[in-house]
Amino acid sequence: FVDDLQKSVIQISKNIMDVNDISAENKEAIGEIVEKCESTADVAYEIQKQSEENQQMAASLDEIIKKFTI
Q: What is the pLDDT of residue 70?
Protein backbone atom coordinates (compact mmCIF):
# COMPACT_ATOMS: atom_id res chain seq x y z
CA PHE A 1 0.00 0.00 0.00
CA VAL A 2 2.76 2.44 0.93
CA ASP A 3 4.64 1.64 -2.27
CA ASP A 4 1.52 2.33 -4.34
CA LEU A 5 0.95 5.55 -2.46
CA GLN A 6 4.54 6.62 -3.02
CA LYS A 7 4.29 5.82 -6.74
CA SER A 8 1.08 7.82 -6.94
CA VAL A 9 2.67 10.80 -5.22
CA ILE A 10 5.64 10.63 -7.60
CA GLN A 11 3.29 10.45 -10.59
CA ILE A 12 1.23 13.37 -9.29
CA SER A 13 4.43 15.35 -8.83
CA LYS A 14 5.48 14.61 -12.43
CA ASN A 15 2.04 15.58 -13.67
CA ILE A 16 2.22 18.87 -11.78
CA MET A 17 5.63 19.60 -13.31
CA ASP A 18 4.22 18.79 -16.77
CA VAL A 19 1.27 21.13 -16.20
CA ASN A 20 3.67 23.82 -15.02
CA ASP A 21 5.84 23.38 -18.14
CA ILE A 22 2.81 23.47 -20.43
CA SER A 23 1.50 26.57 -18.67
CA ALA A 24 4.83 28.30 -19.22
CA GLU A 25 4.74 27.37 -22.90
CA ASN A 26 1.16 28.64 -23.18
CA LYS A 27 2.11 31.91 -21.50
CA GLU A 28 4.97 32.37 -23.95
CA ALA A 29 2.74 31.53 -26.92
CA ILE A 30 0.08 33.97 -25.75
CA GLY A 31 2.75 36.64 -25.40
CA GLU A 32 3.84 36.02 -28.98
CA ILE A 33 0.23 36.19 -30.19
CA VAL A 34 -0.31 39.49 -28.38
CA GLU A 35 2.92 40.84 -29.85
CA LYS A 36 1.86 39.81 -33.35
CA CYS A 37 -1.58 41.37 -32.82
CA GLU A 38 0.03 44.61 -31.69
CA SER A 39 2.34 44.52 -34.70
CA THR A 40 -0.61 43.83 -37.00
CA ALA A 41 -2.51 46.72 -35.43
CA ASP A 42 0.48 49.01 -36.04
CA VAL A 43 0.65 47.95 -39.69
CA ALA A 44 -3.11 48.36 -40.10
CA TYR A 45 -2.89 51.87 -38.63
CA GLU A 46 -0.09 52.81 -41.04
CA ILE A 47 -2.10 51.45 -43.98
CA GLN A 48 -5.15 53.41 -42.87
CA LYS A 49 -3.08 56.58 -42.48
CA GLN A 50 -1.55 56.09 -45.94
CA SER A 51 -5.00 55.49 -47.41
CA GLU A 52 -6.28 58.74 -45.92
CA GLU A 53 -3.27 60.62 -47.31
CA ASN A 54 -3.90 59.04 -50.73
CA GLN A 55 -7.53 60.18 -50.61
CA GLN A 56 -6.42 63.71 -49.80
CA MET A 57 -3.92 63.68 -52.67
CA ALA A 58 -6.58 62.33 -55.01
CA ALA A 59 -8.95 65.12 -53.97
CA SER A 60 -6.19 67.71 -54.53
CA LEU A 61 -5.41 66.29 -57.97
CA ASP A 62 -9.12 66.31 -58.79
CA GLU A 63 -9.29 70.03 -57.92
CA ILE A 64 -6.26 70.75 -60.11
CA ILE A 65 -7.72 68.80 -63.02
CA LYS A 66 -11.05 70.61 -62.69
CA LYS A 67 -9.22 73.93 -63.22
CA PHE A 68 -8.06 72.75 -66.64
CA THR A 69 -11.36 71.34 -67.89
CA ILE A 70 -13.62 73.51 -69.97
A: 59
